[in-house]
Design goal:
Blueprint: E1 11-17, E2 28-29, E3 39-47, E4 50-58, E5 66-71, E6 74-78, E7 80-86
Antiparallel strand pairs: 1-7, 2-7, 3-4, 3-7, 4-5, 5-6
Length: 104
């Protein structure tokens, strides 16, 4: 996976786990795909000195929650991991809601 940005300082990896990922409310968690019945974020974990990127599943049944990574052709699930977050600069946010022109 390759992530590119001109503002890397706006991204941060946050340590979390299955029980506390929903408590991260002061930053935007970066979504990473789609799984039916749950929200999928980009996560990572350190395995034997090597970072592995995967999908962090939330909002689903406990037996599937956690960070899912593939390593050497095998799938693994972790309950503690880091999730990628984004903190936008308020001046860069654009309000895309439509506003009807005033009728005079």
């Amino acid at each position: 996976m390759i992530l590119c940005t001109e503002q890397p300082e706006l991204f941060e990896w946050i340590k979390t786990d299955n029980d506390h990922i929903h408590e991260i409310t002061d930053k935007y968690l970066v979504k990473g795909g789609y799984e039916p019945g749950c929200t999928t974020y980009i996560g990572r974990v350190l395995i034997r000195g090597e970072l592995s990127i995967g999908k962090a599943l939330a909002d689903n049944s406990p037996q599937h929650a956690g960070l899912h990574v593939t390593r050497n052709g095998r799938g693994f699930r972790f309950s503690s991991f880091e999730v990628l977050s984004f903190s936008p600069n308020p001046r860069d946010l654009i309000d895309v809601r439509y506003k009807a022109p005033k009728v005079q």
